[in-house]
């Protein structure tokens, strides 16, 4: 764990992103990140990579156009959605569980209008190429997404591999799925619930957020555990990508241990 303290302001800068690169976990049905050195130090004293990747790998941002036709692309996401005050909510969840509106409303510190909301279920500790991480992860319920939209938040981030429960995506029996063929059966065996009844709508929570022009970040990680239950300032750095639905993103939180720091007006 590395926390950098700014010597002028005393602000602590905390990494909230997973390391990205060769071998990063990738969604079932998608090809792995492919990287090779096009130019090497041993040849020319220069290093330059060539990369072939899905944009939905590692810690990444989704623009509305990802699930909403004619929605805003990454180049059109307003700058104020990428920087601002927010909260790190600790809402621990186990396999196959959901995060509901009641859970978010009860979490502290309370969510305010125009917040960037980071929901931490603990699933970032399981980040790996595994059936458990991709298939059993928790996700937002429909009413949770509706609550966040009604509250007027700017951006929603989670430490899970999807915003929705896996069985509300094509990992289960939706659209081109199941990408994980045994997932529905394993869910029913573990919970005794019918996956089609419990998660019958496709990407419902994610679509609600994106339709409201709220960008999302999936797979938050890094040192997020050091900020659980705190109000912070966040900065995210996606590409200015025309027609871009998603891209890897670096997220950094700024926390003032004294609680007294304010950004000067400049006057």
Strand order of the largest sheet: 1-2-14-12-6-8-10-11-5-13
Order of helices and strands: EEEHEEEEHEHEHEHHHEEEE
Give the end-to-end Cα distance, rounded to a whole number of Å: 37 Å
* Overall 3D shape: globular
Write up what this structure looks like.
This protein is of the alpha/beta class and 267 residues long. The protein has a single domain (3-26, 54-164, 203-255), classed as 3-Layer(bba) Sandwich (Glucose Oxidase, domain 1), CATH 3.50.30.50. It contains 7 helices and 14 strands. It has helices at residues 41-44, 101-106, 131-135, 142-151, 183-191, 195-198, 204-211; strands at 3-5, 12-15, 34-39, 48-52, 60-62, 83-90, 98-99, 116-120, 139-140, 155-158, 216-218, 231-236, 246-248, 251-255. The strands form 3 sheets. A 10-stranded mixed sheet has the order 1-2-14-12-6-8-10-11-5-13, covered by helices on one side. Helix 4 runs parallel beside helix 7. The longest helix is centred in the middle third of the chain and has 10 residues, at 142-151. The model has no long low-confidence stretch (mean pLDDT 95).
Give the topology.
Blueprint lengths: L2 E3 L6 E4 L18 E6 L1 H4 L3 E5 L7 E3 L20 E8 L7 E2 L1 H6 L9 E5 L10 H5 L3 E2 L1 H10 L3 E4 L24 H9 L3 H4 L5 H8 L4 E3 L12 E6 L9 E3 L2 E5 L12
Helix pairs in contact: 4-7
At a glance:
The protein is of the alpha/beta class and 267 residues long. It is built from seven helices and 14 strands. The chain has a single domain, classed as Putative cyclase (Glucose Oxidase, domain 1, 3-Layer(bba) Sandwich).
Pick out its properties.
alpha/beta; 267 residues; two-stranded antiparallel sheet; Glucose Oxidase, domain 1; ten-stranded mixed beta sheet; 14 strands
């Amino acid at each position: 764990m590395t926390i950098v303290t700014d010597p002028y302001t005393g602000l602590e800068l905390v990494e909230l992103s997973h390391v990205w690169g060769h071998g990063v976990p990738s969604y079932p049905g998608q090809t792995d990140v492919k990287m090779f050195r096009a130019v090497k130090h041993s040849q020319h004293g220069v290093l330059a990579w060539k990369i072939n990747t899905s944009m939905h790998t590692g810690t990444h941002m989704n623009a509305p156009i990802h699930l909403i036709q004619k929605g805003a692309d990454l180049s059109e996401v307003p700058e104020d959605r990428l920087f601002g005050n927010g909260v790190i909510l600790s809402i621990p969840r186990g396999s196959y569980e959901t995060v509901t509106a009641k859970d978010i409303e009860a979490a502290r510190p309370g969510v305010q209008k125009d917040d960037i909301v980071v929901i931490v279920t603990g699933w970032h500790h399981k980040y790996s190429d595994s059936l458990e991480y991709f298939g059993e992860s928790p996700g937002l319920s429909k009413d949770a997404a509706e609550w966040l939209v009604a509250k007027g938040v700017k951006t929603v981030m989670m430490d899970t591999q999807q915003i929705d429960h896996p069985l509300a995506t094509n990992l289960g029996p939706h659209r081109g799925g199941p990408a994980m063929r045994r997932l529905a059966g394993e869910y029913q065996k573990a919970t005794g619930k019918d996956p089609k009844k419990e998660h019958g709508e496709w990407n419902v929570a994610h679509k609600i957020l994106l339709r409201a022009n709220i960008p999302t970040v999936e797979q938050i990680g890094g040192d997020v555990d050091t900020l659980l239950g705190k109000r912070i300032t966040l900065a995210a750095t996606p590409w200015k990508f025309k027609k871009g639905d998603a891209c890897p993103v670096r997220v950094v939180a700024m926390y003032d241990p004294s609680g007294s720091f304010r950004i000067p007006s400049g006057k």
